[in-house]
Amino acid sequence: FLDPGRGRALINNLLALFQQIAEGQHRIHIRTERDGAGVGLTLSAAVPGITSESALGPGSALCLDSSRRTVAAHNGTLLLCVDSSQGPSQGVHLRIALPAA
How far apart are CA 26 and CA 28, in angstroms? Predict the structure, then answer.
């Protein structure tokens, strides 16, 4: 399982990143789930104008690198998708999956 201190830091960093991306103008959707394989966390925000990971803003690269290392150290995965289409899935989507102990 994820160390509680690292887990709090991970979630706080990612929420700060999404608050920065959304700029108070767009909703941030948070979803958690648990199944037999482990736990998952999904964050998404439909923010127009972001076309790539490099366009996420100041500090985002450091936040994502730190998050990826924390998740990898716990044998999990972190996937980030930036969808710049004009459809309903447009925006930034991040998914973390951590295995059960």
Answer: 7
Q: What is the pLDDT of residue 79?
A: 95
Q: How far apart are CA 96 and CA 93, in angstroms?
A: 10
pLDDT for 80: 93
101's enclosing H/E stretch is none
pTM here is: 0.85
**SS3 labels along 70-92:** HHHHCCCEEEEEEECCCCCCCEE
Here the tokens at position 99 are 């295995």
Cβ contacts of residue 87 below 8 Å, gap of 6+?
A: none
Distances (CA, A) of 69 to 6, 25, 49, 66, 73: 11, 30, 28, 5, 6
In this structure, are residues 28 and 43 in contact, taking their beta carbons and an 8 Å threshold? yes
